[in-house]
Amino acid sequence: MGKFKRHFINLIFPAFIFGSITGIITSLLVILYKLLANYVIEFSKNSYDFLKGNLYIIPLILIAFFGIALLFSYLYKKESRVSGGGIPSAIALLRGIVTFKWLRTLIGVFFMSLTSFLIGVPLGNEGPSVLMGTAIGKGSVSMFAKKHPVWSRYAMTGGACAGFAVATGASVSGVLFAIEEAHQRISPMILLVGVISVLSAQIVSQILCPVLGLSVSLFPDITITVLAVKDVWIALLVGVIVGLFAVAFLKYYHVANNFFNITLKKVPHSIKIFIVYALTLAIGLVSFSFISTGHEIFELVLENKIAIYALVVLLLVRTSLTLLANTNKVTGGVFVPILALGAIVASIIGKCMQEWFGLSSAYYTAILMLGISACVSSMMKMPLTAIVFALEVFGSVDNLLFIIITVAISFVITEIFGVNGINDNIVDNIIKEQEETHERMVIDRKVIIQKDSFAENMHSKDILWPANFFLLSIEESKSHHEQIDNQGDKQFDAGDILHIRYATFDEKQTEEELFSIVGEQHFESLSDDEKSKIVKDIEKQNVA
């Protein structure tokens, strides 16, 4: 078989098939999810209005909330991936840090996040969409190519990208999410699967959403003033303020997380969930704007009719309640709620500029755009995604320079203070939870690239190796010279001997994952003569 033909059949074709299947199914499910979420959120809003005039029902509501908290705490123990933010869970899965039952997670996240929306917990639908896409990617390989598990994390990556793209309407940002946040590296294979999945998902979304009355965009259409060079101070100021707010927010997250998961560790999880629900109910009876996903916030700040003091109160309440829900692992995403916080901060900045500096109100929407962009950059530590996201959802290409300035300034401030993004913090917590219940083992071994294995003719950087994997050296089958592959540009040949080291909580599962890449073997237990014989046999096969 020719090298190109083998490359097409073994890599390009499966990437296209799994990417397309995952993208289409993810899009269909996320569209259904968004449709139901809209109805549930509207029902929740009407229910809170009804409760304000019928307070005698509240004891019954609290009893129901306690029952839901008991049920969900039990379900979280059965499948921990359905709890908390969907994006950090998806990142941990895509990096191979944790595993999950894909169908159980898919169903659990779908219904449990809708329950969060019904109660009014200030968490969004984009996180669950990303996690559901990840589960669908796993399921597509499990159902259609069970004998090729090596494709699971590629298809899961495509599903995550598709879920993000359909939920936010930002296609390129969906692909960048995989590169900048999920895997934190550029790889042609990741790009290929991500692009195919997002393209398939967006075709379905563009066709069905208008028919169902759903918006494909996260924000309403707004006119944004084009800034001039003399207005660069606005971008600088917004970047500094949002960056400082991001530092305060991320440090606040640590305080909340330590309080609920360390100080109150012995308190049953069901009680903590109930506290979140009860506080949400109490605050929601004051104003529905204080709770729910955050989509309504964008409309409110765009109207520019909320007083500064009211915005400050809104910011403090939503920040506290969002972190309270997330640190107690209530199902739902934090991406849109964080964007909502960015919009509130930007609105405060815009109003202050108008009152203190006499800035024209025409700049208001531009400041909102800059503030939201800076939020993605600083709170989530995704500067490239933040720039592209702003261009996609706001379409203000003429303000690209000012977006870059704001994004860069806010990001640098968080770097100066040494804070990690919200997703990285949550992933670190997931790892700590594993370390508390599982023993980490460090394995040092040698493996051989088998003929017709997935790794043959692949570059190291294109392979999604097991988590905590280090390729120490490569002994080439042709020259028998040992070399180090620092850049990941080495293309493997059958018979290459890899000296590897990895840390794992589950040795058997990691070994299965590794062998699905390099091929089945018991190479480590063989003598040097037996190893040489295997290598020579593979070389003969290559020549043949």
Topology:
Layout: H1 3-52, H2 58-78, H3 86-94, H4 102-119, H5 126-144, H6 152-168, H7 171-182, H8 188-212, H9 232-263, H10 269-286, H11 295-303, H12 308-327, H13 335-357, H14 364-379, H15 383-394, H16 400-416, H17 422-437, E1 441-448, E2 469-475, E3 482-483, E4 497-504, H18 507-518, H19 528-543
Helix pairs in contact: 1-4, 1-5, 1-6, 1-8, 2-10, 3-5, 3-6, 3-17, 4-5, 5-6, 6-7, 6-8, 7-8, 7-15, 9-12, 9-13, 9-14, 9-16, 10-12, 11-13, 12-13, 13-14, 14-15, 14-16, 15-16
What features would you describe in this structure?
The protein is mostly helical and 544 residues long. It folds into three domains: 210 residues, Clc chloride channel (Orthogonal Bundle), CATH 1.10.3080.10; 202 residues, Clc chloride channel; 104 residues, 2-Layer Sandwich (Alpha-Beta Plaits). It is built from 19 helices and four strands. A hairpin with a 6-residue loop joins strand 2 and strand 3. It is globular. The mean pLDDT is 90.
Which descriptors would you attach to this protein?
3 domains; Clc chloride channel; about 550 residues; mainly alpha; Alpha-Beta Plaits; single chain; 4-stranded antiparallel beta sheet; 4 strands
From the spread of the alpha carbons, the general shape counts as globular
Q: Please identify which CATH superfamily of the largest domain we are dealing with.
A: Clc chloride channel
Main beta-sheet strand count, sense and barrel state: 4 strands, antiparallel
Mean pLDDT: 90
Kindly provide the name of the CATH class of the largest domain.
Mainly Alpha
Query: What is the CATH architecture assignment of the largest domain?
Result: Orthogonal Bundle
Number of helices: 19
Strand content: under 5%
